[in-house]
Amino acid sequence: MESSELEEEKAPPLPTGEGSGERGGVPESRVEAERYEPGSERDFERLYRNTYRRILGTLIALVRDVPTAEDCAQETFERAYRSWSAWRPDAPVEAWLHRIAINVAISDRRYQRIRQAGEVIKRLGRPAPGPDPSVVAERSEVFRAVSRLPTKQAAALVLRHYHGYSNREIAAALGVPEQTVASRLAAARKHLQAVLGR
Amino acid sequence: MSDIERELEQELHRVLDPISDRRIPPRRSIQAHRTLKTLLGGAGAALAVKVLTGVAVAAAAATVAGVATTGSLNPATWGQRVEQQVSDCKSQLAAGAHGIGDCISPFANQHGSAVASAARQHGNGNGDGSTKTNGSSNGNGNANGHSGGNSGHGKDHPASPKSQSGDPEPIDPIGPNAPVKITPRP
Question: How many CB atoms lie within 10 A of CB A99?
């Protein structure tokens, strides 16, 4: 059974900073130079422009195809917009968005499982339709293996190996301890090695 | 960094970078139909449907039960009408005559049919329901007949279930004994 959704989509808690110049576990250099005013319509539009591509990149790795990822990205920003006035400026905004995006991806995977069960019942006795060739062409064996991982493990991998976050930053984004992030990454790598036979 | 990590990183960038470089679409506005979808979907909606169905079934059952017990959709009205009919029938009786069953039966039968159709509309339209309702109506007629005497019960009742179904009334076979005459007491 896949893990349930992450904690409530509040701004991630701030870990006690070890070094100076860090906020919410994210180095000052990575925290957006721009400032956002919670509840401001104009600032939210700016946030959308600045972060859409990164959020979409994460979602493409977590859900089945690009159109679904785009839909999930829009859903992510809708949810964020509803809570925009409650967002705290002292927390990293992209980590907050990533947490929402991962929750959306978990919901989508759950919905897809229910839908697939319905389709299996409908086509009993008939062969299953093949996957969309356009989707298959752009995905390698490694990428498909990542997509099949449990969502939280896949999210940790993408944040680490695509966005270049440290374990601490991932922990801040997901609202879990660093040890949890480390164990998710280890489990994901082990699973990939087993699937890919390396 | 292990080989698998390096390969994973390369693959993620190879696949995701071109897609992520696409043009940013306009932000989707929060639409009213999504709120409606939320209200109409999910566990909350399923629970609401169940509650509403339960209330509807309970209301229908209460109405049918009331009809079956009192013999009328409006018990107060039905009772008053029965009383009126009984007093009318009594007043129509000739001096020395007994029993108002014949007078009451058409009235009770007519009302019983109306109540049975109402019960059918509430989803209880099987044969048992209508028979029971008719029986209840006839019972009222008989009860009123007691005040005038015991004659006219049963066999000559036009609204009894047996006579409605078309079965012949049981007839005593003619035996060797002559029928006994009963003279009413003065």
Answer: 25
